[in-house]
Amino acid sequence: GNSQMGATIVDALDTLYIMGLHDEFREGQEWIDKNLDFSVNSEVSVFEVNIRFIGGLLAAYYLSGQEVFKIKAVQLAGKLLPAFNTPTGIPWAMVNLKSGVGRNWGWASAGSSILAEFGTLHMEFVHLSYLTGDPVYYNKVMHIRKLLQKMDRPNGLYPNYLNPRTGRWGQHLSHIVSIKGSFYEYLLKAWLMSDKMDTEARKMYDDAIEAIEKHLIRKSNGGLTFIGEWKNGHLERKMGHLTCFAGGMFALGADGSRDDKAGHYLQLGAEIAHTCHESYDRTTLKLGPEAFKFDGGIEAVAVRQNEKYYILRPEVIETYWYMWRFTHDPKYRQWGWEATQAIDKYCRVSGGFSGVKDVYSSSPTYDDVQQSFFLAETLKYLYLLFSNDDLLPLDNWVFNTEAHPLPVLH
Ligand code: DMJ
C-alpha cells in the first residue's frame, strides 16, 4: 500500500519474542498500540496483508497473550472482508482499506484472482473465527475450498488463475512456484492445525501432491531432483527459489501420507533440500539465485541476468529447518551456517541487511531493500535451526507461509 503501515514491525514481532528480545518486542507493541491504523485510503494486497499482518499479529497474540494484537488482527480482518464481495465469493487480489473497493491485477489472466493468494487465507481465517466466535471468517475460506473441490483439474493440477466473476479458470497453466505453492502448503497445514481432524484438506493435499510429483518433479542429467514449471503445455526445466520451500513441506506432510509413503516423502524433501543447497553452492557468494535451470549441461544455475538476484528470501533455510527437525542430520545445520555467513558477509549494510543483484558477481551491488520477511522468516528459521526441538514443537504449532506460528486447535 501507499501508507506507512509498519510492515517490518508487525512481521518481526514474533521473531523478537522467540529470540527473547523482550524490550524490542515491547517497543513494537507500543508502536502498534499507538500508531497502527487501518482506516487509511490505501489499496493493499489481501494475500500479503493476511500472511504478514494478520498472521504476524495472531502469532504475537498467541505467544505473548497481549490483547492488543488480537484486537488489531480482528479490526484488520474486518477491512479485508469487502474483498469477498464478488459474484463467486472468490476474493479480489486487492482491496482499498478505506472504501472497501476491490479489484484484480490486469496481468493476471484478464483480471483473474490468483490461486496461491485466495488459497492462502485458510489458517489465519480459521483462527479469527476461533478467537472471536464469529463464523464469518471460517465461512469465507470454506466457501473457497468447496468451490475449488467442485472444479475440474487438468491432470489433477490446479490452474493458477480463477476469474471471480465467472468462477472459471483462467489460462490452464499450472506450476508450483511458491506463491502458487502456498495453496498446497495451506491444505496440509489446515489438516495439521485441526489436530488432523480436517481430513478433507489432507485428501486434497495428497491428491494434489501426487499430481505434482507425476507432472512437475524430474531429475536432471546430473541427478538433481527439481520441481519444474508447467508453461504453455510443456515443462520448463527451471526451479524458483520460492519453490525450495516444498522440501520442508514434503517432510512435514510425510507423516500421515497415503499408502504409508512417509519414507518416500522424507526422501523427496531431502532431495529438494540438496538441490536448493546446490543452487547456493554453485554461486560466487554462496547465496541462491531467484531461479535456476536444468538444461543440457546447466545444473542448478541461473542463466538470465534478471534471475541472478537474492532478496533475503527464506525458503531454502526453511527447508533446512524442517529437514533438521525430522532427521537431525547435521548437514542441515552446516548448510544453514554457510548461508548465515554469506548473508552476514555480503548482505549486511550499515542500516540493516540488503538484497544483492547478482550472486555470481564477486563485487555485488545492493538493491537497498530489507524485505520484511527477512526478519519474519529468514532469521527466525535460522534461529530455530540452531535451537532445541522444544522451542515451538511441531506437534503444537503450525507455521503460516510467512513463518508466523499458530497453535494447533486441539
Ligand atoms: C514471503 O512473503 C512468504 O514466504 C511467501 O509465502 C512467499 N514470498 C515471501 C518470501 O520469499
TrEMBL record:
It is found in: Endomembrane system. Ca(2+) binds at residue 401. One of its GO terms (molecular function) is mannosyl-oligosaccharide 1,2-alpha-mannosidase activity. It is an enzyme of class 3 (hydrolase). It comes from the Eukaryota. Gene3D superfamilies: 1.50.10.10. The keyword Nucleotide-binding does not apply. Coiled coil: none annotated. GO terms for biological process: carbohydrate metabolic process. Disulfide bonds join 244-276. The keyword Isomerase does not apply. SUPFAM superfamilies: Seven-hairpin glycosidases (SSF48225). It catalyses: N(4)-(alpha-D-Man-(1->2)-alpha-D-Man-(1->2)-alpha-D-Man-(1->3)-[alpha-D-Man-(1->2)-alpha-D-Man-(1->3)-[alpha-D-Man-(1->2)-alpha-D-Man-(1->6)]-alpha-D-Man-(1->6)]-beta-D-Man-(1->4)-beta-D-GlcNAc-(1->4)-beta-D-GlcNAc)-L-asparaginyl-[protein] (N-glucan mannose isomer 9A1,2,3B1,2,3) + 4 H2O = N(4)-(alpha-D-Man-(1->3)-[alpha-D-Man-(1->3)-[alpha-D-Man-(1->6)]-alpha-D-Man-(1->6)]-beta-D-Man-(1->4)-beta-D-GlcNAc-(1->4)-beta-D-GlcNAc)-L-asparaginyl-[protein] (N-glucan mannose isomer 5A1,2) + 4 beta-D-mannose; N(4)-(alpha-D-Man-(1->2)-alpha-D-Man-(1->2)-alpha-D-Man-(1->3)-[alpha-D-Man-(1->3)-[alpha-D-Man-(1->2)-alpha-D-Man-(1->6)]-alpha-D-Man-(1->6)]-beta-D-Man-(1->4)-beta-D-GlcNAc-(1->4)-beta-D-GlcNAc)-L-asparaginyl-[protein] (N-glucan mannose isomer 8A1,2,3B1,3) + 3 H2O = N(4)-(alpha-D-Man-(1->3)-[alpha-D-Man-(1->3)-[alpha-D-Man-(1->6)]-alpha-D-Man-(1->6)]-beta-D-Man-(1->4)-beta-D-GlcNAc-(1->4)-beta-D-GlcNAc)-L-asparaginyl-[protein] (N-glucan mannose isomer 5A1,2) + 3 beta-D-mannose. It is a single-pass type II membrane protein. Its EC number is 3.2.1.-. Its cofactor is Ca(2+). Keywords: Calcium, Disulfide bond, Glycosidase, Hydrolase, Membrane, Metal-binding, Signal-anchor, Transmembrane. Involved in the maturation of Asn-linked oligosaccharides. Progressively trim alpha-1,2-linked mannose residues from Man(9)GlcNAc(2) to produce Man(5)GlcNAc(2). Belongs to the glycosyl hydrolase 47 family. This is alpha-1,2-Mannosidase. The lineage of its organism: Eukaryota, Metazoa, Chordata, Craniata, Vertebrata.
